[in-house]
């Protein structure tokens, strides 16, 4: 509102130099207040056309008046919006000189006050007068007073009043605005303009008589089985038909339309012809260009046909020329350039690239890597657990020798691929371990003998962190005693607590996880609020048919005894020759599980043997130390004092109903079960027992090695086992939404991508890595790459930065391979997450349809079997003889005749028979 369209003339542009234009013209549009008819005044009165021209052109402004054109943005900035801030009744606006100068300084030549820059600079006062010119008296919608005299003259000028319209003017205006009376159009005969000839030419008609064919077969061959045999085509006369190419001289296509390009200059061609002697035809060559004479050119240029043609095609020609110049102004050229760079080079750019590898001839010689984990806060540091490659019998026979070489967890740094930076001593081989989300210096692991182990590496954090610099000047370990040791000696950290063998698992621990710091569970498995705000409980599972929950805080009874011991100053502390931290001294060899969850089989007796499990509130790898967990790490940078924590009473804690207690568990027999870890009270004994699983699925033909939730969808689970893998959706209990076919080699491990929702990695026993991209293919991997010659044992991706993603792959030969993920596998598309969500929903609907069809077919088969069974049980009816059949037909015919006679009598079409007289 208030933006008046105007056209600047060269005289208006001359105001850039600060001079006043002599004249200015503008095209004034009709006011928005109402349309006026030509030749009528403000109230409909007729006025002279000469006055209209003068008002449209505008008066010549005085020397001290300067017309201006202000855009909508400038009007908003200076609060002088037309018909809102300034009106015809109050057209004045006082502008401060410094604001105008600031606007010209900010927007430079784009400013609407730039043409009067010199005027504003030379103006003696601090406030200028801007006048809204609604009637365009000086050719523009605004004008500026150039002097103080002009300002006073304009402000003190008498105002004219608007004359009210009379009754005669209103009557005249109403008569002009009367609506015309609608008349029904009269029909007229159709007049041909020659279009039927064009329609006739464009229509397709049959030029030849259609052929008719008839195929017949002998009746006795109907339904006969067809047998195909081999024969020599050249043995019989009609064995094959040769169709040599040839030109048909009778074939002709009439060209009705042609698109061609033309130039304004003659084209010269050098050509020759040679008739190919298949049939006689005329050919020619034009060797002299034809040109119009001057007279012909003049007649053609001024002809009426050419003018009509140009008039008819001018609009289409302009549109075609504009379309050639149109381009997408919102197209992101930088993004497209990056995509082109990513695809340059072809297939090799999509492969995983070897970045670094780690192996040790002393600690990992003839050993296998069982588990790997990236350090959550120190980039470039990764921990690996090495185990002996021995079967059960060999492990028993060599048990004495194994005691002399303790099992270790090695910390590798990218700065030194030869020597490990830190060694964690273990009581036995470790199959799994995890960093604490609240304090990464606390590590928990599961042993092959069923014990749970805790380490505290707080004293070695700076040592590990400084080692990634490659031994630079900042390498100052936390313990100054290391300076006296040899330069290449690696510190060994002894475990600070281990559970008792009789209280732990009776089989190797295959999975261990920390419960999040948002809740803890009671002895009945009920989620309670966690007032400490740190992770204090652990979940472990083993093939001994149980899942155990552990609490790392000292129990309340032990807490009182420890307090009493602290109050006795005369008691001497125990010797600690190994330098083991006393963080979890209260748990060493006395640690017992909080609760035990067993998985009884649903239909038969016995229990399931779990290998891997997944919780709904599990902490994903790429989200582990982000958001709230990252804040806790910063808050607890100095470490968490677990020795001061105590187990609170469950009576004083609030129960959390929004925490899910359902878990997916992969078993040793290839089954996937869905159960609840809450304990139920037995009606007979009154004890708390584990509830039976609610669902059981058989999707794998071997032990399940991986049960991982997607980092982007908390209800999507990837399971890997045997020769197959499957994708599940929590809440859909009819089966997996995607299941792979059996591969040639066994699948050993799998993991989701941390940056792309539709990508995951599958490790094989032959050392290959399969990269699956569900947006590209769902029936086969998008690529397969060989990493090693041995079986792959573990896969762990990690995000270093937005431009560098790593994939850690370990094998049975004790080698750790660090692969760099290419750009195409780490950068998601703009709508990849929504596309994957839609894909999962479609697969769920397909699965529901499949289940319904299977139930329908099973019911249909059951009904058919029941019908056949009933048919067999029915008594056999003997066949009727021909005499009986003929008698039934005759009886039916007589009944029909009687019915016909009865109907005819009722309708009066059959006369009644006279009664017979009695015989005399």
UniProtKB/TrEMBL annotation:
It is found in: Cytoplasm. The keyword Kinase does not apply. Residues 1-58, 467-486, 559-579, 862-885 are annotated as: Disordered. It comes from the Eukaryota. One of its GO terms (biological process) is cilium movement involved in cell motility. Keywords: Coiled coil, Cytoplasm, Repeat, WD repeat. Residues 562-575, 862-874 have a biased composition (Basic and acidic residues). GO terms for cellular component: inner dynein arm. Residues 1-16, 23-33 have a biased composition (Polar residues). Gene3D superfamilies: YVTN repeat-like/Quinoprotein amine dehydrogenase. Interacts with ACTR2; this interaction reduces binding of the Arp2/3 complex to the VCA domain of nucleation promoting factors. Part of the multisubunit axonemal dynein complex formed at least of two heavy chains and a number of intermediate and light chains. Found in a associated with the catalytic heavy chain DNAH2, the intermediate chain DNAI4, and the light chain DYNLT1. Acts as a negative regulator of cell migration, invasion, and metastasis downstream of p53/TP53, through inhibition of Arp2/3 complex-mediated actin polymerization. Via its association with the multisubunit axonemal dynein complex, is potentially involved in the regulation of cilia function. May play a role in osteogenesis of dental tissue-derived mesenchymal stem cells. This is Dynein axonemal intermediate chain 3. It comes from Lepisosteus oculatus.
